[in-house]
Structures are given as structure tokens and as C-alpha cells.
Amino acid sequence: FPTSFNAAETDFESFFTASPNEFWVTGYDDASVTIFEQPSNDVIGGDSGFLAVHLADIVFTPDGESAWVADAGEEEGTIYGFDTSLGEASTSIGFGSFIERLALSPGGDTLYATSDDGILYHYDPLFDEAYATTDLGSPMGGLAVTPDGGKVYVSLIDGTVAVVSTSSPVSFSTISVGSDPRGVAVHGDRVYVANYGSNTVSVIDTSTDAVVATISVGAGPEDVEVSPCGCFAYVVNQTDGTVSVIDTFTDSVVGSPISVGADPQSVAFAPIDELAYVTNYGDETVSVISTITDEVLETLDLGSGGPWGVAVFPHGVGEPSASPSTPPSAALRHNRRTR
Fold first, then answer.
1. Engineering a disulfide at 183: which of 68, 167, 224, 273 sits with its beta carbon 3.0 to 4.6 angstroms away?
2. 177 belongs to a structural domain
């Protein structure tokens, strides 16, 4: 099974340089990063070298030059920066407690981080500083940035979503959603919020900041991401170990739930290979799902580490092996809704 490199115990070494055909998985329990090659799904490296506690979310900058990883330390959270071209760590930044979820502005010039102390951190990677904070007054579940970079939507465990204007980060408004909201995804003028406690997804219209639909999904939705074509939202249901697929045109669930591993946490898409990767914390695996058939094609066994975060190297950077597919036709959308 894959070999990963422990960030809590080992001095840093350069085990990798990133390429367009890779995805990275963080280990929450052993503070590791494991790097897989696409489409073989073979392990080609990893990283070690920090006194990390629990590595959680991971994001790539749009140009693929950097990767940012959240360390959900209980006393002080940390964000680690990787220079993907050199294959080495570039920086580490200490923030508030339990830094878990990250999001980048569309241009990659601002990194946003959630925390358990109710503070949303705004970090400038170029100048290596947190230039603003927003006190939301409640622990957070997830976050996402609008395509124009003007708003950040942050889920709060009190059953609301905070809408933070990036031009005036000290002020915000709130929207009532379901119980214990977690993952947040934005596509176009819609925001999708996974409500862990009520087994639903709230859909928000960004022009009015009002909830326009509430969709029942599986038990304990933890994360949600929209597919690259924008046609479907994949919802990771932590409690029952499934993924629900929502048609974003009809705001309804299509097909049957996709069974994955135990205690799934995160999902990311590989647009070139038309795949989705789901990390399964409970049984130390990653499920590989075809986004064409919505079937699990392969289960990757890490053996240990508690896989939590997953990110795919941004397509269009470097020289990918194939071109992205076109969005599904209307006929395919209909077939998937009724299959």
C-alpha cells in the first residue's frame, strides 16, 4: 500500500515536485501528505518535516506553484506552504485554534482559513502576513469564495452562513440554513451548504443571499463540491458512508447514493480523467469515482494515517495528458437524473 511521509516525526526532505497529473491526500492522524499519480493512482512520493498535529484541508493555487495545508492543532493551528516546483516547504504560519478548512481567492492572492475560535483569517501569501481578520463569533465548518472574489461564504455551527465582503472584511451578514452546517461550495450564482445535523443541502442565491432550495441527502453531510462542468454537486455523507449527487439544474438528487468507505471527509475532482476522489478517514482509504457513471472504480488503501483532505493539481497548468471533456449533453443529464 502507499508509502506516506510523516510530518510529525521526520526532518524535511524533498520527496517530490508536483506535476499536472497528481493529487495529494493529507493524513489527519499521522500528519502526512501522500502524492498519487494520475491516472495510474500509484503513489509517487510524499512529504515530511513539520511538527504538525493533524493535517486537514489542502488547496493548490490556480497556477499550481504552491500548495497550502491546514494543521488543525488544538492550541494553535498552522498553515504550511509548499513550493511545488522546488519540492520543498516554503513557509509556515501560526493562527488560531483548530485551523481546518481553507479557500483561495480566484486569483490565488488571498488565502482564507477557518478556526474554532470564531476568527476568519485573511492571509496574503505574497507578503506572508494575515492582513485582516473577521470575528464571526462562532466556530466554523467550511467556506468558499465567489468567482469574482467579492464574497466569502462561511458556515457556522450555530446554523447560519456568514457572508463576508472581501472589500470590508470586518462586517458580515448571516443566512439561516440547516443544523450544524459544514462544507460550502460556490458555483456561478449558487452556494451549496452541507448541513450535517439536518441531512440536507441548502442552496443560496448569491444575488439575494437567500436560501432558494433545501435538498435532502444522506446522513451527516460533511463536504460538498461542484463538478468542473458545473452540472452536479457531490455531497460526502460522513455518517452513512455515501456520496449523494445533486443535479444543479433541478436542485434534486439523481440516482442512488454512491457507497464509499467509512467516515468520508472530503471530495475533489480530476476534470481531465472525469474522476472524483473521496477520502475515507474511518477505513484509511480513498474512493475513486467515475463522474460519468457515478460508480466506484477503485479503492486506494493507505493502510494508516486517517486520510482527510484531498486536492488535485490544477488542470491547464503544465502539459496535461489529455484535454478536458465537454460538459454533459442535455440527453446525458436527463439519463443521469432518471437512471
1. 224
2. no
Q: What is the pLDDT of residues 186-213, one digit of tens each?
A: 999 999 999 999 999 999 999 999 999 9
Q: Which three-class secondary structure string do you get for the chain?
A: CCCCEECCCCCCCCCCCCCCCEEEEEECCCCEEEEEECCCCCEEEEECCCCCCCEEEEEECCCCCEEEEEECCCCCCEEEEEECCCCEEEEEEECCCCCCCEEECCCCCCEEECCCCCEEEEEECCCCEEEEEEECCCCEEEEEECCCCCEEEEEECCCEEEEEECCCCCCEEEEECCCCEEEEEEECCEEEEEECCCCEEEEEECCCCEEEEEEECCCCEEEEEECCCCCEEEEEECCCCEEEEEECCCCEEEEEEEECCCCEEEEEEECCCCEEEEEEHHHCEEEEEECCCCEEEEEEECCCCCEEEEEECCCCCCCCCCCCCCCCCHHHHHHHHHC
Model pLDDT, residue 225: 98
What CATH number does residue 258 fall under?
A: 2.120.10
Q: Has residue 262 been placed in a domain?
A: yes
The whole-chain average pLDDT of the chain stands at: 85
In-domain check, residue 203: no
| The model scores a pTM over 0.70 | yes
Note whether residue 285 is domain-resident.
yes
